[in-house]
Design brief:
The chain has 150 residues and is an alpha+beta fold. The protein has a single domain, classed as SoxY domain (Immunoglobulin-like), CATH 2.60.40. Helix content is 17%, strand content 37%. The longest helix has 14 residues, at 9-22.
């Protein structure tokens, strides 16, 4: 009879980290991955500039908790309102970060949240209007060594 193998907590963590590093599904996204997600959502429709504003810090000292504020200029009437805003990060394992849905009853197309960024990367936000028009904004966030990736 053989005795069970005892693995220390440290060895278990090292093995887990190695397995995650080798997992093919956890590769970092890039600008092409963001473009692919946008094609899934909107096909070949192009987004214009303006109307949408992203407020994120230029330098994030802690990549685990990066605040983001999104605001879209819209009358928020039945004929002219924001239907959705999608936020993407081109350096995270999955490019999609968050999606917000709006109706005219919201009164204002604005939202705030926090996101986790694995490294310095671009944040892209796309606003979809009721008439089908798309607007985009992009901002780079530099994650310092104190963050979750450097």
């Amino acid at each position: 009879m053989t005795s069970p193998m005892i693995v220390s907590r440290r060895d278990a963590l090292c093995l887990s980290a190695a397995a995650l590093a080798l997992a093919p599904g956890l590769a970092r996204a890039d600008a092409a991955a963001v473009e692919a997600e946008l094609r899934k959502l909107y096909g070949d429709r192009k987004a214009g500039s303006g109307k949408i504003k992203i407020d994120v810090p230029q330098i994030a000292e802690n990549g685990l908790v990066v605040p983001i504020n999104i605001e879209v200029d819209s009358a928020m009437t039945e004929a002219d309102h924001v239907k959705a805003v999608h936020v993407f990060a081109d350096g995270n394992p999955l490019p999609g970060v968050v999606s917000f849905r709006f109706t005219p009853a919201c009164g204002k197309a604005a939202a705030s949240t926090r996101m986790r960024l694995a490294q310095t990367q671009n944040i892209v936000a796309i606003a979809e209007m009721a008439d089908g028009a798309l607007f985009s904004a992009k901002s780079e966030v530099k994650v310092t060594i104190g963050g979750c990736g450097g």
